[in-house]
């Protein structure tokens, strides 16, 4: 577990949990999100808030959303998709997030690009 910061992440996670304010996102939004210090090959966040950009794939009405973490590192893997701006979506890391993890909105993805990503996610699930 060398290099893992679980204790520090737990303190941040507790502050996030106690936050009354839930920021609301929409499908296609890209937000900086506190994704945490995670286990094994799960994607980790960076900096003091354990943050990483996340694409909102589907917003749910209860303050949660299905999101896909992003990275700037190139990878030739079938679960990694390059998007405009030079970033990459980590499809294998997609999961449910609480809106309290949202830090700030970065931008809104173009509808056409978003539809392509949704089709790739569906194709991945069907395989």
Automatic annotation (TrEMBL):
SUPFAM superfamilies linked: Cell growth inhibitor/plasmid maintenance toxic component
MF terms (GO), sorted A to Z: DNA binding
InterPro entries assigned: PemK-like, Plasmid_toxin/cell-grow_inhib
Pfam families: PemK_toxin
Designated name of the protein: Uncharacterized protein
């Amino acid at each position: 577990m060398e290099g893992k910061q679980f204790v520090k992440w737990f303190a941040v996670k507790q502050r996030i949990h106690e936050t009354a304010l839930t920021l609301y996102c929409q499908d296609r939004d890209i937000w900086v999100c506190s994704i945490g210090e995670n286990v094994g090959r799960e994607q980790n966040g960076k900096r003091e808030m354990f943050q990483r950009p996340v694409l909102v794939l589907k917003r749910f009405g209860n303050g949660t959303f299905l999101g896909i973490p992003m990275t700037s590192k190139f990878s030739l893997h079938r679960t990694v998709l390059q998007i405009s701006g030079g970033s990459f979506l980590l499809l294998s890391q997609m999961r449910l997030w609480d809106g309290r993890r949202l830090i700030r909105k970065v931008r809104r993805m173009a509808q056409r690009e978003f539809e392509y990503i949704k089709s790739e996610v569906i194709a991945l699930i069907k395989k």
